[in-house]
Structures are given as C-alpha cells and as structure tokens.
Amino acid sequence: MPRRVSQGISNVVFGRRRSSAARPFAAEVQVELVPEAEVARRFDIAEIRNMAGKTQSGQKIIFTIWDYAGQEVFYALHHIFLTREGGVFLVVFDMQELLFKQDQAVEYLSFWLNSIKLHAPAAPIILVGTHYDKTAVDANEVEDILIEYLSVHENENIVPNSRASLSFFPIDNMSPEPNRASELRAAVEASASSLEAVSRKISLRWLKVLDDLLKLDCDYVPFDTVQELATKYHAGDQTDELLSFFHELGMLVHLRATDTLHDKVVLNPQWLLDKLSRVIADKIHVNQMHYNRELQNSGLKKDFAVLRKRGIATLSLLRFLWNDEEVDYLREFMHETMLMSNWAFPEEALTRGRQDETLFLVSSLLKNSTDRKLEQDIASVRSGLTCVLDFSEYFLPDGVFARLLSLCAKHSGDLGVLRHPPRLAGRHAIIRFGLSEFALEDEGDQIRLIMVPGTEAPASTLKTLISMFLGARDAVFKGLPWQLRLQSPNDPFALVEYEELVDARKAAAATVALVGVGNASVADFDPFFEDGSLTEDEKDTGIVEQANIPLPAGLKYHVFLSHRQYDAGDACNLMAEKLRNRGLRVWIDQETKGNLAEDAMKRGIRESKFYVLFLSKTVFEGAVTMELETALQEEKPILVVHESDPNRPGFAPFSAYINAAPASAKHLFKETESMPFQRRLYLAEAFYKELIERIRTAR
C-alpha cells in the first residue's frame, strides 16, 4: 500500500508521536537554515542546540508518514495530500499478485505511478515488493514485468536498488533478521536528504512558529492562534506565506478560498482524512455503519442508504457522520475541493417532515453505480454535437469525471431546472442547463460531451462544459495533459483535433485531417463555432446580450471602476472589457503607474452612475481611498466586488479588507453584499448578469 513520506526542514525537532497509531513518527536531519547571527538575535543558541541531534549522515530529518487507503473510493482524495512539493513515495505491491494476477496488479501500479507523477512530478518513488518469502516469487521475473509493462527504466523518479540490480526493493516481512529492510531504509533516507526542500533555507522564525503549533498537540487551531505566534517571532506579516509553505510540504492543511476555510489551520491532516472518509467511505466502513446503533437511533438510516446508493447527503446526516464537529469548515472544504456540491432538486421521500433540509451531492460515491435505462438513452442521442476530452497521452485521473458531474449538477440547480433533476450514474449522466440538454460519458481515457439533438444553444453549452472541466483541472489536476477533439456531425467514427480545425478555418481551408486516416470537410464543423472559440475561458468570443441602460442627463459613464492596478489590474481590465461588450460605458484608470490627476479621477466619479470598488490585497494603499471618499461624498451607489481566486496575488481573506478599510467606509461591508469576481466562463455569465442588473436598478 503506498505511503506518503513528507520531509521536515528544520534543525529543531517538530515531529512527535501522538496517541493514535495513524499519526506521524519522527526520524532526524540537520541542515543550515539561517546565519548564526540571526539566531543569536532572536533565540537562545543553547535552546537550538539542545533540540538538535545527528544520524549517521550527520543530518536530522523528520518523516511524516501517511498510509493511503488502497480502496478506490479514497482515490478522489489524493490531490489533498499529494502536494507538488512532494516527498518520497513508497509504492508497495504484492509480488505474488504481479506474477499471478498480472493485469490487475499492473493496472494498480500504473494508477499509482501516474497519480504521483501528476500531483508530485519531481518526487522520488521507491517501489517495494512484499511476500518475498513465498517460494514461487522470482525477483528477476518481477523485474522483467516492471520493465515491460510499466517502463520503470524510463521513469527517472524511480529510485533503483543498485545493490541487487533491480528497480524495486523485495522485502521478506516474515524474516527474523533485524536488518531485513536496511537497504530500503537507506534508500528512503538518501532520497529524502536529496530533496531540494530539505536543504532550502527558510527563516528560523517560521520553524519556531511551526514547532510551537505542534506543541499544542491538537488537530486544528484558529488562524488567529498562528497569527499570534508569528507576531511573537516577528513574522506577523508573513503568516499566510508560511502557512502556504508548510501546506505544500504536507505538514499542515490550510485553504484560503473563504473566510471559514482561512480561519482554520489543520495541524493533524489525519483528522481531516478521517472526517472525509466518514462520508467517502469504503465497503468495510459502510458495513460497520449499517449496524451502528447510534445511526439507527438517530432516525438517519434511510439518509445513509440514499447517500450510498445515489450520492445524495442530507445536512443532518453530515452532522451525524462528523459528530457535529466543525461542520461548516468540512462542508466548505469539500465544496472547494469539488468533492461535494449543492443538490437543489426536490427529494420529497428523503426530506418529508424536514422541509428545510439542505441536500448535497457526493459524486465520487456514484463511481461504480449503473443505470441501464440511462445508458440506453445516451446511446439513442449519440448523433448529437459531440466533443471528446482525450487524456490518452497521459491518463484520466480518478475524480475528474466525478468533479465534472458535481459542477454540472450545481450549475443546473443554479439555473432553476428543478423539475428536471440530473440523471447520474458512475460513468454516465444526462443533465439540463435550462432548455439545453446533454449527456456525459466516461470511456477509458476519454470524456464525451454529447448534445441532445435539437437542444437549445449546443455550441454555447459545450463551451460552458469545457470551461467547467478547465476549472476542475486547474484547481485539482493542474498540469494534466489533454486534447480536445470534435466528432464529425456526419460520421460518429470521425474525429478532428480542435486546434487543427481552428488553424484550417483561419486559413480558409476546405478540408482538415482526421485523427487516424482520411480528411473531413471544414464546413461540417461550423455548428461547433456558433459561439466562437470553444476553449477561450475568460474573454468574450461570441455574441453577448446588450444591456441597453440609458444614462441620466449629465452622466457619461455607467460605471467608475475603482481598483489598485498593482494587484487587480488584469481582473479589472477584463471586467471593463466585458462590460463594454455588453453596451456599458466604463471609466477605468488603465495606466500602469496610476498617475492620473486627482481632479480627473474625481470628475470621472461625478460623471458615473455607479461606483464599483474592487477589493484586492493592497486596495487601500493607493488612490482608491481618495476615490472611495469622493464616491461617498457624492452619494454614488456603491457596489463591492472582491478577488475570489486564492491563487491570485491580489487575493486576501475578506476580514482583511474590513480591517483595512477607512472608518468612513466600514458600513459598506454591512450594507452591501460583496460579489466574488469570476473569470471562468460558466461562472462569469451569472456574475455579469447580476452586476448589470444592480447597475440597471441603482438609484
């Protein structure tokens, strides 16, 4: 069973045993981190020396070991704990199975090697073969299989067993020899010691913060606790940065997308994994739960059965499964990682007597479900406009299709299609976006997007679906290679590479090469381009609806867009472009140095119907404060928009905006609901619709 080994980076011991056997254990490496002079200024040298120790290599390294559950139902959680900084990965397999159940074992190993390559592409991988004590096991025969079917000789990340001239380490777990795994241990230590992150120099202040956090010996703490410790060690302005660093190393878990997530720092990731696995559970845990007396007494037995069969959870059931602990945080965590989405569709048999019950879809639980009628209905519409997301160059990771289902189900509910709930099974779905209906299929290393013939706006819906996939990929499966292919409307077996078709259209060519052999008519694919580019996910490429908002006498602009160019320029330039495309007049300072005269800015505000304040990390450090004061004095209607992408440099927790706002403007955060800025096509449509409606009705 694969194990995660994430490294500590310290000349102090910050890993300790905890009460649970699943908790990490510590071993040791010492590295130079900061000049001695800095240490002397901040801390007692004797304290640091007393905390350090040495191994044979003269270093101290701390291993935090995570034993991943091997059951398929947990595969959807990999991205949470396989970070790009990585660690050392031990992929453990049964040599007997590789010899006698070759196809199944090769598929298992291939999945794990691909998953590690995707989420931690530079991490060392150590293959460990067990059951070497069995008489029928031949290490050289195992090696031949690994070379032929898994190309281990071509994988530069696999650590070789040089002494045995093998690509793996055979282990006899039954051997009484105390040094039976000495070569494996040496390989683990050497691989961890060679990691760039181990020798990276970082501030000792950060390490002291982490050490003090772990001394608290608790599963999670509020962000304010970390802030207090960081301030104590003169790093209070670096709290988010240090948490992000240790998050990437797997030492803790900290997400920032919402205030609820930002306010919680998980010091024991096993606690989080245990909570998630109460919902995304394997058969063993499910069987135990079916006979759980507390579940029976809670009146939620039916809720649990529906969750397991259809992937739909009630809030009452989630509260029970999580022992009513940190429910809001866990809900938002699952939403942000696309493990769960809102289910807006009526479930009267489930919610009878609980009319206000909130429902959620946990789509990964549908993986092995089937629905023959659904499959037959999809087969009957395969002549519709079809796109193929092809991952055969690499592989289709577990969880991509499930997350696409979650996004589609939520979007369908947001559009109010409540009389037509999504029909979902493990690898198939039929869903409506308003009057637009489509099917989804997961086939091998492909996902097929099929528009039902005669449906409304098929090209626009395909564009939305591709935008959803891009959102899931960038958030969870960053760097995953894929290709977009279009199926010929005249031949279901003829596919064209999207980029080749785009090039052919630009060149006004009559034909384009098919995937494989043969050619096709470029004109046959015109229906795919009725809404412009299928892959453009931010800018408008097709026709957009015009707002037609008249301006009162004396006003020149619908919107004055107030922002800090330093960290919100790209977002606001995009917003201005999209508003102009929709017929609005926008005043925006697009000069990178922001050196327009103050009176010109004030005049722009007076001549605008609406003032939009775009919140970003440094928003109140420049001219925006003056602009905001002017808007308040002129009694302009004010709308607040904030950066919603935690990966953008302008992102900050919403509480930071409130704290930094001038006293005269703090009331805005109580009176006005801030709108999260959306770039993704499928989210941006609703964003601009609401924004324009607020501008239209402003008084």
Any key phrases for this structure?
699 residues; alpha/beta; TATA-Binding Protein; Rossmann fold; 7-stranded antiparallel β-sheet; 5-stranded mixed β-sheet; globular; disordered N terminus
What can you tell me about this protein's structure?
With 699 residues, the chain is of the alpha/beta class. It is built from 29 helices and 24 strands. The termini are far apart. Among the domains are: 280-361, no CATH class; 372-529, TATA-Binding Protein (2-Layer Sandwich); 557-697, Rossmann fold (3-Layer(aba) Sandwich). Strands 12-13-14-15-11-16-17 form a seven-stranded antiparallel β-sheet, with helices on both faces. The protein has a five-stranded mixed β-sheet with strand order 2-1-3-4-5, with helices on both faces.
What can be said about this structure in brief?
The chain is an alpha/beta fold. It is globular.
Secondary-structure topology with pairs:
Elements: E1 3-7, H1 36-42, H2 45-51, E2 63-67, H3 78-81, E3 88-94, H4 95-100, H5 102-119, E4 125-130, H6 139-150, E5 168-170, H7 182-193, H8 196-199, H9 204-215, E6 220-222, H10 223-232, H11 239-248, H12 259-262, E7 264-266, H13 269-279, H14 283-290, H15 293-298, H16 301-310, E8 312-314, H17 315-321, H18 327-336, E9 341-342, H19 348-351, E10 359-361, H20 372-379, E11 386-390, H21 400-414, E12 423-424, E13 428-433, E14 436-443, E15 446-451, H22 458-476, E16 483-488, E17 491-497, H23 498-506, E18 511-513, E19 519-521, E20 557-562, H24 565-581, E21 586-587, H25 598-606, E22 608-615, H26 624-633, E23 638-642, H27 654-660, H28 668-671, E24 675-676, H29 681-697
Parallel strand pairs: 3-4, 4-5, 20-21, 20-22, 22-23, 23-24
Antiparallel strand pairs: 1-2, 1-3, 6-7, 8-10, 9-10, 11-15, 11-16, 12-13, 13-14, 14-15, 16-17, 18-19
